[in-house]
Structures are given as structure tokens and as C-alpha cells.
Design a protein that fits this description.
This protein has two domains: 42-318, Zn peptidases (Aminopeptidase), CATH 3.40.630.10; 329-370, no CATH class. 42% of the residues lie in helices and 21% in strands. The protein contains twelve helices and nine strands. The strands form two sheets. The protein has a seven-stranded mixed beta sheet with strand order 1-2-4-3-5-7-6, with helices on both faces. Strands 8-9 form a two-stranded antiparallel sheet. Strand 3 (118-124), helix 4 (134-152) and strand 4 (161-166) form a beta-alpha-beta unit. The radius of gyration is 23 Å and the shape is elongated. Bound molecules: zinc ion. Zinc ion binds at residues 124, 136-137, 169, 197.
Length: 370
């Protein structure tokens, strides 16, 4: 018997799953400052964001020199000595040349077995000229400082971890380009790189870029991260946009790595309103949850071979991550199309196929994409 309610049940079910899927795309809850010392707390990191993003601090400005000095003193407080890569950069692209003087702040957390390849963590400390840059990229920088503190509270890792606070990102990735200029040294020293960015001030931190031949790094990521939000589709979309981050010169140098950014609150991006008070602490916590779990993981495994056949990956619901060899994509697509054709043929045979329902199904499928 077909009651009207029964007829609408599949649609109601679909809507419920769609609503749940949207609801679950959110960052983890910020951890309070009273949390154990070896955990990452967004409330602790927030104190650094407040200083770092007190006012606009673009490349070469006195305010940026203050941020540089603050980073040096914070590293000292954390028991590490930091150095400055003080260098002039000349960069030309598409007929436009940029020359500038950058000062990258670099520190190293020594591992128990020095000599192997290191983990490289980076975020840029300069801001765009008209914004204090709490989300872009104060959150990334503060997450690094809080992670160093949490790591120092635990047992040492096996591998070295290099912490690179780049300068001049907003002027054309100048600090990262300077760091990556010596490609041979970079490949010798660095096994895997993690870059943290902000393109807004809220929402989950998405793993939006993965280096090519991602099989190894995605497998390890899936093992290590407690709250993964990633999709091969993000990268396919990002690849076709004229956007670059500090990860670009590293990827071009052949370094394996992952790139993270939160993208909600886009109107705050490069705006005077990108202030510490407006930053979503959930986004900061999410940066930290990746950072700490991945540095602990990559810090304790061999980084000698970090490439593998490409994988496809996505979150069907919340932070549940599915990943499988990209080679399965074609057979899976063929299977899906065969099942669709079979369903259409069966419906036609039983006289249940109508143009209205076909169109409705198509619209629901297209509507399901966003
Ligand atoms: Zn940025």
C-alpha cells in the first residue's frame, strides 16, 4: 500500500542526510587553556594571535619588525634558539619583477636521531598592508608556537622539526621562495612539509592541497590526524585558480607535503576586520590538531621515501575520511553508470519512468554537489 507519507520517505531521508552532512562540516571544539601541557589549546594560542595581529604588519614595516622580534623572543621562551634568514630576493613572473628584502625566522626542534630528513612546518608572519591578519596568517603562526610548546612538554621525537616563519608572503611568497631557492639542500634536508594558511577567519581547516604522488602522504595523514577534512576535489578546484601559497615553491621543488587553510568568513580575508577578536577559535584548534598530530607522527617515522601512487580521498560525512587508489576511479565510474542504466531499464520495463521524475532526480543530484 502506498500512502502519501511513504512516497516522500526517500526524499525526507535524503534531506536529513544532506542536512547532517552540512552540519558536520565544522572545526573541532577549542580546547581550554587548562588542558594538559602536551595538548594543543586554541585558548593558549589565542594569546599569541592577540600580539601577532595587533595591527597591520606588512613586509618591511616597523610593525613587521616588531612581530619578527616577538617571534625570536617567544622561541627563546620555549627554549629554542632562532635565527634569521636575512636575504634579498629578486623574483620575476609574467613580465613583472619584485625585489625585496625578507627576514625569515627559523628555529629547529632537534630529534633524537639527527642526520635524517626533517619535518618542515611553515606559516607566514607578515600581513597584507590593510589588515592585522589574525586569520591570515596569525592563526598559522600562533598554532606553530603552541605546538612547539606542547611538543617540548612531551618526549623528544626521532626526526628534527624545522619551524619556518616566512616573511613577505603577501608580496609574492618571497620568504618561501628564498628558503626554497637552494633546491638540492632543501630536498636533502626536508622529508615532508606542512603549510598553514587562512583565507577567511572561520570554519574547518581544510587540507586543500596535497603534493603529487600523494599515496604515501595521504596514507600517513589518514593514520595520524584525529579530525581530517580533505578532498581530492578541493585540490582540483584550487589548481585551476590563480592562487598560490608558501607551499607552491616547495611543491615546485618536489617536496612532499600538505597545505591547510580555513575558508569561511571570506569577507574578513585581507580586510581591516581580520582581527584577533573575530577569529574563530575552532579554526585555530583545527590548525593545531593537524599540526601536533602530524608533527608527532612524521617526527617518528622514516622520511626517506615519501612518494606513492596517487590516491583519491574525501569525507563522506563529518571527519570520516575515505581514501583509495586513484586507479579505482575508472572502474568505480563504470560500475556507477552501469547501475544507473540498469535502474533506468528496470523502471522503463515496469512503466515507472517519467520525464518529470527523471528531471527531478537530475536536479537533486546537481543540487547535492554544493
Ligand atoms: Zn596568507
Amino acid at each position: 500500500m502506498k500512502t502519501p507519507l511513504f512516497r516522500w520517505l526517500p526524499l525526507l531521508g535524503l534531506l536529513l542526510v544532506a542536512a547532517l552532512a552540512v552540519f558536520l562540516v565544522r572545526p573541532p571544539r577549542p580546547v581550554p587553556a587548562s588542558a594538559p601541557a602536551n595538548e594543543f589549546s586554541a585558548y593558549r594560542a589565542q594569546r599569541d594571535v592577540a600580539v601577532l595581529a595587533g595591527r597591520p604588519h606588512s613586509l618591511g614595516s616597523p610593525a613587521n619588525a616588531e612581530v619578527r622580534d616577538y617571534l625570536l623572543s617567544r622561541c627563546r621562551e620555549l627554549g629554542l634558539s632562532a635565527s634569521i634568514q636575512d636575504i634579498s630576493v629578486l623574483f620575476a613572473e609574467k613580465g613583472q619583477a619584485t625585489a625585496a628584502h625578507v627576514q625569515n625566522v627559523i628555529t629547529r626542534l632537534p630529534g633524537r636521531q639527527p642526520g635524517g630528513k626533517a619535518v618542515l612546518v611553515l606559516a607566514h608572519y607578515d600581513s597584507q598592508p590593510h589588515t592585522p591578519g589574525a586569520g591570515d596568517d596569525g592563526a598559522g603562526v600562533a598554532a606553530m608556537l603552541e605546538a612547539i610548546r606542547a611538543l617540548r612538554a612531551g618526549p623528544p621525537l626521532t626526526n628534527d622539526v624545522i619551524w619556518l616563519f616566512t616573511d613577505g608572503e603577501e608580496a609574492g611568497l618571497l620568504g618561501a621562495r628564498a628558503y626554497a631557492a637552494d633546491t638540492a639542500r632543501l630536498r636533502r634536508e626536508v622529508g615532508v612539509a606542512l603549510n598553514f594558511e587562512g583565507r577567511g577567519n572561520a570554519g574547518p581547516s581544510l587540507t586543500f592541497e596535497v603534493s603529487p604522488q600523494n599515496g604515501w602522504v595521504i596514507g600517513e595523514y589518514a593514520r595520524a590526524v584525529p579530525y581530517p577534512m580533505a578532498s581530492s576535489l578541493f585540490y582540483e578546484a584550487y589548481r585551476h585558480l590563480p592562487n598560490n601559497t608558501d607551499f607552491t615553491p616547495l611543491r615546485q621543488a618536489g617536496i612532499t607535503g600538505l597545505n591547510f587553510a580555513f575558508v569561511n568568513g571570506y569577507p574578513y580575508y585581507h580586510s581591516p576586520a581580520d582581527t584577533p577578536a573575530h577569529l574563530d577559535l575552532g579554526s585555530l584548534q583545527h590548525h593545531g590538531s593537524y599540526l601536533l598530530s602530524l608533527v608527532r607522527h612524521f617526527g617518528n617515522i622514516s622520511l626517506a621515501h615519501t612518494k606513492g601512487p596517487d590516491e583519491t580521498f574525501f569525507n563522506p560525512l563529518g571527519s570520516w575520511l575515505i581514501h583509495y587508489p586513484a586507479g579505482w576511479n575508472m572502474p568505480l565510474t563504470q560500475l556507477t553508470i552501469s547501475l544507473l542504466v540498469l535502474a533506468l531499464a528496470l523502471a522503463h520495463q515496469r512503466g515507472r519512468l517519467s520525464w518529470g521524475s527523471l528531471l527531478g532526480g537530475l536536479l537533486a543530484w546537481v543540487g547535492g554537489w554544493p
